[in-house]
Amino acid sequence: MESAHQRAETLRALLARYDYEYYVLDAPSVPDAEYDRLFRELDALERAEPALASPDSPTRRVGGAPSGAFAQVRHPVPMLSLSNAFDDDEVLAVARRVRERLVEDGLAQIELRYCAELKYDGVAVSLRYERGAFVRGATRGDGATGEDVTANLRTVRAIPLRLRGVEPEVLEVRGEVLMFRRDFERLNERQRAAGEKEFVNPRNAAAGSLRQLDPALTAARPLRFFAYGVGAAAATALPATHSGLLDWLAGAGLPVGPERTVANGPQELLAFYRRMQARRAQLAYDIDGVVYKVDRRDWHDAIGFVARAPRFAIAHKFPAEEALTELLDIEIQVGRTGKLTPVARLRPVFVGGVTVASATLHNEDEIARKGLLIGDTVVVRRAGDVIPEIVRALPERRGEPPPRRAFAMPSACPVCGSAVAREDGEADWRCVGGLYCAAQRKQALLHFAQRRAMDIDGLGEKLVDQLVDEGLVRTPADLYRLDVATLAALERMGGKSAANLVEAIGRSKRASFARFLFALGIRHVGEEVARVLAQRYRDPESLMAEDWDALAASKAALQKENAQRRARGEAPRPVPLEGIGPEIVASLRRFFGEPHNREVLAALRAAGIEWVRDDEPAGAALAGRTFVVTGTLPTMSREQAHELIRRHGGDVAGSVSRRTDFVVAGEAAGSKLERARELGVAVIDESALIGLAQGGGPARDTRTEKES
Ligand code: JCF
After folding, report:
1. Which of 378, 391, 386 is nearest to 347 (CA)?
2. Which of 56, 284, 524, 642 is the 20 to 30 Å CA partner of 415?
3. What is the C-alpha to C-alpha distance for residues 210 and 126, in angstroms, rounded to an integer?
4. Angle at the Cα of 308 from the Cα atoms of 304 and 142, rounded to 5 degrees
5. Spatial distance between the Cα atoms of 438 and 455, rounded to a whole number of angstroms
6. Among 119, 293, 317, 672, which one carries the catalytic annotation?
7. Dihedral sign (CA 108, 110, 113, 119)
8. Ligand 1 within 6 A of 393 CB?
């Protein structure tokens, strides 16, 4: 005799195997009744002798006993499927045939009215209500017989257990169980976190959730329901139109999709189709098309059926959002900031309504995560206007020709041959040859010339485009070789503006080293970092000569010493390059280590750039005074005027107030000058500013009387 303990072990092993066959292999080897019998036997054993129970027993699944596989349910009124139309012509042809049939029967009107609704991408079910109470729910199955999933459907909160305000003897509600996209994403996040298998799409997740043996598992899944029709109905008067029926269902407390309309004739149907196609990506749930139905229900039988599909309705499908194709190659694009982006070259494929031949792959980690090999068969997805993406490879298709090869990031920039670098904690590789790389040329020049950098007035986006496209300028150093004649020959460029530009470029040769450093566009070197660096280094050579490792060591020692000093209540000693961390240092080393950049620096030097130090104040004549600069000054740019004020101890403000001491006005000064006059603030010109800075000129008491 087998002991109770042995029997329980045997039962658990059997049930585990049957679960595996059912759920994993989808190939059950025993009838459902046998599973149920074994399950009940084990449950009884464990209840009689709790010591026999084990935590991995199938009886321990949350929610108690599973229902076993599902019983069969015959649909008293068959659940129909719909014929598909894939283009406008098919829709027009169907509409024409429907009309002809109704005309033959003497029923048609001039304009045939249709109800148009969305075609939800979910699982079709039938819900049976008796005297207003939900009694049974079934899947569509083959249309004639489905599976009884009542216990699972009861857990779907969108399905009312009682109808509101009506109690027909019998009412079968037809509709679709589905999962909203956001709920699906969250479910997959949960699955991932729990180390469980993720679902491919919301429809699969809905189908899998609905067919759980344990209703408690279904209950934990965020399922939704939309009603779109009725099957068997007894002892109730239903609306005469399909649109009326949908409203009636909504009135009975059932969820009905809000996107529906009544259309006069096929052109209005097609307009609905296009409207919904445009809105598709914004909907909370997946749809795979729209459904058109002759609105008058009493005409449906007259129009008739083909096989299992009605002739009075048609599904107008959207183009599929996913398709299979071949990953031909992975190329690298270099962006304006030097970022290297892998791009998939695909065998052209029609997907999401367009032909797709490439897809972004974002970065190398993404390629590794998806396990893509060049030559793989891949699933390409294009949803709405979103750029196409590769969803996954089908590794099971490997082994067919052509041979596969792995992708590797190039070790040099494919555009300019400079080194590439991937920083710690970053996903992207970048080209280091910022000043030299053709891909980054325009961006680098604009950055170099901007007001806060070299302040080359008049060198904007359009002009940079022209200069680069005409081959006149490749690197910032080329700017200093431009002459008036060359510039004046450019389109939309007069002699006067050419001369002004040459002058502005010439003026920029005497920039502070801080501005120059910022102008180089080194990653992580913004204005503030450039200012800090310029306090320690005079020129690129001294910066390049720095022994960074020694500096880091001495900084660390100094910081330690300062901690002790602070503990003793003593003032800390200044730390060199405070706030310049290893990330910035690494970026500087990369930039100045790239020979291409060094060539450009040498060329800039040869062009006559010389750096004026701006860290040491030039004087204090303007201390305590606040200035606003407005209009065009005769020789200085606004930035240069600001710099002059600051270097002599003054403050610069952006707008005129009662606290403003001087407004420095140039040509075409506007509202700020007006405001200064209103408030009685002293107005001076550029030469007066220079005089003030040099310690002469008007003193504070020369200002005009303020109005009160
Ligand atoms: O997916 C739907 N929204 C939908 C499916 C709507 C309908 O009016 C349907 C359907 C499937 C069959 N009508 C039938 C007869």
Report:
1. 378
2. 524
3. 13
4. 155
5. 22
6. 119
7. positive
8. no
Q: What is the pLDDT of residues 242-270, one digit of tens each?
A: 999 999 999 999 999 999 999 999 999 99
Q: How far apart are CA 325 and CA 532, in angstroms?
A: 53
- Rounded CA-CA distance 288/260 in Å is 15
pLDDT at 25 over 50: no
What's 698's DSSP letter? -
Residues 6+ apart with CB under 8 A from 415: 334, 431, 437, 438, 439
Kindly report the number of other CB atoms within 10 A of residue 203's CB atom.
21
Ligand 1 proximity of 117 Cβ (cutoff 6 Å): yes
The β-bridge partners of 358 are: 345
Stated as kind and residue range, the H or E segment containing 610 is none
Atom of ligand 1 at shortest range from CA of 115: 8
Neighbours of 504 (CB within 10 A): 18
Query: How many other C-beta atoms lie within 10 A of the C-beta of residue 330?
Result: 20
Pair 287, 119: CB distance under 8 Å: yes
Closest CA to 411 of 332, 344, 337, 464: 332
Beta bridge partners of 305: 310
Mean pLDDT computed over 380-394: 86
Burial profile 293-316: b = 16 or more Cβ within 10 angstroms, e = fewer? bbbbbebbebbeeeeebbbbbbbb
**Ligand 1 atom nearest 293 alpha carbon:** 8
Establish whether 119 is a catalytic residue: yes
Is residue 592 lining ligand 1, measured as CB closer than 6 Å?
no
pLDDT tens per residue across span 510-526: 889 999 999 999 999 99
Phi-psi region of 524 (alpha: psi -120 to 50; beta: other; left: phi over 0): left
Question: Phi-psi region for residue 352, left (φ > 0), alpha (ψ -120 to 50) or beta?
Answer: left
DSSP letter for each residue of 19-63: HIIIIISS---S-HHHHHHHHHHHHHHHHH-GGG--TT-GGGSTT
Flag whether pLDDT at 569 surpasses 50.
yes
- Neighbouring CB atoms inside 10 A of 433's CB total 30
Q: Omega into 402 within 30° of 0, i.e. cis?
A: yes
Looking at residue 253, its amino acid is: G
Tokens of 150: 């009542």
- DSSP of 440-486, one letter per residue? GHHHHHHHHHSTTTT--TT--HHHHHHHHHTTS-SSHHHHTT--HHH
The answer to whether 138 and 335 have CB atoms below 8 angstroms apart is no
